[in-house]
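can u pls check wat happens w/ thymidine-5'-phosphate
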Amino acid sequence: MERLEQLYEGKAKKVYATDNDEFVIVSYKDDATAFNGLKKGTIKGKGVINNQMSNRLMKMLEKAGIPTHFVEELDERNTVVRKVSIVPLEVIIRNISAGSFAKRFGVPEGIVFDEPTIEFSYKNDELGDPLMNAYHAIALRLATREEIETIKSMAFAINDNLKAFWAGCGVTLVDFKLEFGKTSDGRIVLADEISPDTCRLWDSATGEKLDKDRFRRDLGGVEDAYAEVMKRLNEHIEF
Ligand code: TMP
């Protein structure tokens, strides 16, 4: 499929039109940002890893019956995805306390929850992606009640799937952020990406952080961490 004009440039990806109105091409960059773009940098090779990891995990989720935007990987950085209108919610699932949860509630990182939590942020850079609940999202007509219910059950099903997969790789899935899109016929599908940019992944044996927190917190070894989780995924994924 041919890559036509650029439609959009985000912090980590560009989106291009194709000759088919139903599809766009996403192109993954090595650019990294944190704290709503205040911190900027480059993670060499990240675009390739995030593209391949996200595609492989979405294929795995599709097999488990979860609809995604994934269509076809074109090359190391470029993937054809279904064109969707993004529901402007960041959907965050947590299995273990970390990051903004630990900060907001004044608890240490690493508390294993009896049940996963879900939260929404309004996807709006100008406002700094404020936390919101389902009633706020419905009031602002960001999604209908039915769409929120669908998103919630999909997000928990994705968590069950990803948690089990990563556990098999010796990696603990601490938390992650998802985005959902609506197709032209009104179906909700998983969109955006699943990668070390959007998940907290800890080595199950040592607790070592193998995700973007190494960049956010200046821990060093960022590229090695991304390469390590990709290597483990490739060793364990079945296809
Ligand atoms: P948080 O603890 O900072 O709220 O992050 C929760 C999860 O969401 C974590 O896995 C990182 C991911 N995340 C994003 O993918 N994009 C973002 O802009 C933020 C703030 C977090």
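Residues 92, 98-101, 175-177, 198-200 surround thymidine-5'-phosphate (CB under 6 Å).
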